[in-house]
């Protein structure tokens, strides 16, 4: 999964989440600092989500993207509330929506807000795909 395709998919999926009133990629996303950035409005609050990718082995971004590798879709790691504005709620809603719309590309998901030991990024997810690529979906301020 490449970051540009994921950002477009995330925007479409997020737009259909209950409680989301706007989900749009940020034009140029602060291209120097955060080239793949999505703003989501829910519950009168705006959250920003950065997309960072690790490519599949042998994948080169200067070439056409390969056909997706499909497999079983994992279960959401957290229950999905309506996205009513807090980063935790938006995180859970996005993960559930992404898994619900996944044709089988996602192999696993780690939700950051439920980690036993919190990391530097408190909200978001690591999505690992069946082709071994990864997307880091990071909540940013």
From TrEMBL:
Domain of life of the source: Bacteria
Pro residues compositional bias, start-end: 71-80
Name listed for the protein in its UniProt record: Uncharacterized protein
Species assigned in the record: Streptacidiphilus cavernicola
Lineage: Bacteria, Bacillati, Actinomycetota, Actinomycetes, Kitasatosporales
Stretches the record annotates as Disordered: 60-84
